[in-house]
Amino acid sequence: MIVSELSTNAVTHTASGSPTGTFHVALALSKQVVAISVTDDGGKPETPHPAEPDQEATHGRGLSIVMALANHLGITGDEHGRTVTAELITPTALVPQGGAR
Q1: H/E run at residue 28
Q2: Which strand (E) or helix (H) includes residue 74?
Q3: Which of 16, 54, 66, 95: disulfide with 21, CB 3.0–4.6 Å?
Q4: Which of these, 47, 42, 40, 35, lies nearest to 2 by C-alpha position?
Q5: Of 24, 76, 11, 87, nearest to 48 (Cα)?
Q6: Domain boundaries along the sequence of the chain
Q7: Is 55 exposed, middle or buried (0-12, 13-18, 19+ CB in 10 A)?
Q8: Per-residue pLDDT for the chain (101 aa), expressed as one digit of tens each?
Q9: How many C-beta neighbours within 10 Å does residue 73 have?
């Protein structure tokens, strides 16, 4: 769901949606975190932020959905290209060291 929402945003709201546009998806894993990043080709100078769409709207919920699913959301870059990263804490990161007692 996170990859779908971030990729859709890249194609819909940035130069990545142009005929020659591209975007890149990266996955980073550790024992504590799974990080999913989507980097676009740039577009508007404003940093994206979650919208509060009208209840009847059929779009505008992407970042809100990602924020609800992820433990942390980070946005870096500028109008020449942005990377949006969603981090999820892995279940093993929630287990105390030494296991359960």
Answers
A1: strand 24-29
A2: strand 72-78
A3: 16
A4: 35
A5: 76
A6: 2-94
A7: exposed
A8: 999 999 999 999 999 999 999 999 999 999 899 999 999 999 888 877 666 766 665 565 788 889 999 999 999 999 999 999 999 998 876 666 665 55
A9: 17
- Return the CATH number of the domain spanning residue range 2-94: 3.30.565.10
Single-letter code of the amino acid located at 46: E
Tell me the residue type at 81.
Answer: G
Helical H runs in 1-101? 2-13, 62-69
Can you tell me the distance from the alpha carbon of 25 to that of 60, in angstroms, rounded to the nearest whole number? 21
State the residue for tokens 């005929």: 19
